Structure formats: structure tokens, C-alpha cells
């Protein structure tokens, strides 16, 4: 292992230990001198900025609801609760994040357009763009609940809309569960792409590569749809969500090998907007907030929640997020994310 990487790991580990200990220990009584000096040294590093960046919530994914109208068999964020924060509380949390350095917010779920017929989401999008002046506001959705009226009301405040589509074969979408009834997921995808153009929102596509679609060639459709980014995920297992006894989904039968994933990427090497995310790149490179505004730590292969930022603030909660900023940067997490800065052909 090279020295800077090792150092970074040590500092991150110390930072984590410091956060954990400061939560459970009484430092004034009985703590050893050595431990105190290690913490002071770490605090010095934090104040000098050496580790401060690792705890800055630059880009946050807020899964404000777990409810969904689809039944994707591999889903790793399932309807374990039906809780959604009151709007004012969600806004308070978003303000705290902005004050801690957030530049980009992504709203996800569950299906984010489901709650309050998309109005809760629209109000948060507007709040983040107008009140908080965030450079980037985005949404990931299955697209099935979006109406043109939503674009008319809130489109101005949205930078990027990502729609998930795992196959251009309707039968495969049905097999995966990426559908509601017999409605065409693909027709809907094209319709939303056109609204994005009309209402000046950057259009993105997310695909999860799994056993049902790994042999497909999606090049033609992707080129025609022309998204600003095409995120291609390797199907990921998360204990308690889509694997293990307490999970609501059993995604083992969807999992593909690294070789199968690489084959899919090779087949689509001509698609310039493709951004691949292997399991390794994906696992800890997202700052995820759940419906209670708790950071979810995926380092143990499951989603371990921190305390809510609404109760303990961002600084304390983020210590338990398991966020790997290096991997965030390696996967290209920082990119041109304001629509004002994109060279889009509208
Ligand atoms: C949990 S979904 C929530 C938003 C919305 N319902 C949707 O499907 O786009 C967020 C993203 O995670 C992806 N996803 C879900 N389960 C996954 C898994 N097991 N591995 C990789 N990506 C997954 C979805 O395809 C989607 O792009
Ligand atoms: S991945 Fe599928 S089931 Fe999961 S939240 Fe998105 S649309 Fe719903």
C-alpha cells in the first residue's frame, strides 16, 4: 500500500474512533493520556483541514420515502417503513446540510414522486434551489408517476432528472418487476426525455445490470435518448434490504459476476456518456440519508444508521456515515452538475 493512502486510512480510522469514543466515553475522568494526545493531534489535523474534507457533505442522497409502486426484485432500498418527515423538518435538515457544505442534493427513495403526488418533492426541489441556492438539485425516479404539470410547476428548479431503466425489452422489465401493471416503462422513458428537453432539465439514465439484462445491447436506445450521463450499476446486495433473513427482497438470483459486468461494459464501450459503477465503487461512495435523516453506513454490507442530523447535527451524524470520499471522487462523483454549466442542446 502506498504511504499517502495508508496515512489517509489511518487518519480516517482515527477520525472514526474519535467520533465513536466521544459519543460513548466520559473524557474528563479515567481516559489515558495517550488517548487524549491522539485525539488532540487528530483535532489539530481536523482544524488544519487534513481530514475536514472527508466529513463535508458535498453531495447528499436523501431517500425521504421508502414506499414505491414498482417491485424491482433487486431493490436495495425497500419499504421497511412508511415514514416521511413533515416538510418543515425536511427543510430544516436540508438547511443544516447546506450550512455544513452541501452543494448537491439528490432526492431518491422508494419512489420520490409517490408522496403527496409529487408535491412534497416539488416543494423540496424549489426550496433547495431558491432558498438554499444549491448549485445542483437532482432526482432519481422510476418515472411512472411524473406528470407534465410537475415540470410546469417545478421544472425550473431542477438541474437533473435521472430515470431508471434496466432493459429496452418490455418482457425483461416485467420479469425484473420494473413496471406497474402492463404500462410500458420504455414509452414512458421517451415521454419524460421529451419533457426534460421541453422544460430544460438535464436528462440522465440509470441501469442496474443483473442476470436478466446482462446480455442485452442497449447502445441504439441510449444513443437515441442521448442522456447527459448513463449510470451503469452492477447489481449490489445489501443485507437486511435485498439479502438475508430480515430483507423484503431476495436479490441473490439477480447478482452477476465482475466478468459479466465487464462484458456488458465492453459491449457498450462506444457509448461516451456511460459511467460504470461496480459493487466496489458503489458501496461506500454515496452519502445516504434515510427517511429520518440518518446517514446510512454500508461498510458492513448492510445499512447501519447514524443518529438523525435533526437531533445531533450534521458533524456528529456524518462520523457514522461510512463515507469514502476517495471512492466518491474515483467514481466521478464530482462532475458538472448545475444545468447552467452544461452545454445542453435546448
Ligand atoms: C433505490 S432506487 C430509488 C429511486 C427510484 N425508485 C428508481 O428506481 O429510480 C435508486 C437507484 O438505485 C438503483 N438500484 C436499486 N437496487 C439496486 C441494486 N441492488 N444494485 C444497484 N442499484 C440498485 C435503482 O435502479 C435506481 O437507479
Ligand atoms: S428500484 Fe424499483 S422497487 Fe426499488 S425504489 Fe426504485 S422503482 Fe421502486
From TrEMBL:
Subcellular location: Endoplasmic reticulum membrane
SUPFAM superfamilies listed in its UniProt record: Radical SAM enzymes
Topology relative to the membrane: Peripheral membrane protein
Required co-factors: [4Fe-4S] cluster
InterPro entries linked to this entry: Aldolase_TIM, Elp3/MiaA/NifB-like_rSAM, RSAD2, RSAD2/Viperin_antiviral, rSAM, rSAM_sf
Domain Radical SAM core: 54-274
Keywords: 4Fe-4S, Antiviral defense, Endoplasmic reticulum, Immunity, Innate immunity, Iron, Iron-sulfur, Membrane, Metal-binding, S-adenosyl-L-methionine, Signal
Signal peptide feature range: 1-22
GO molecular function: 4 iron, 4 sulfur cluster binding; catalytic activity; metal ion binding
Gene Ontology cellular component list: endoplasmic reticulum membrane; lipid droplet; mitochondrion
A GO BP entry: defense response to virus
Family label: Belongs to the radical SAM superfamily. RSAD2 family.
Record's protein name: S-adenosylmethionine-dependent nucleotide dehydratase RSAD2
Gene expressing this chain: RSAD2
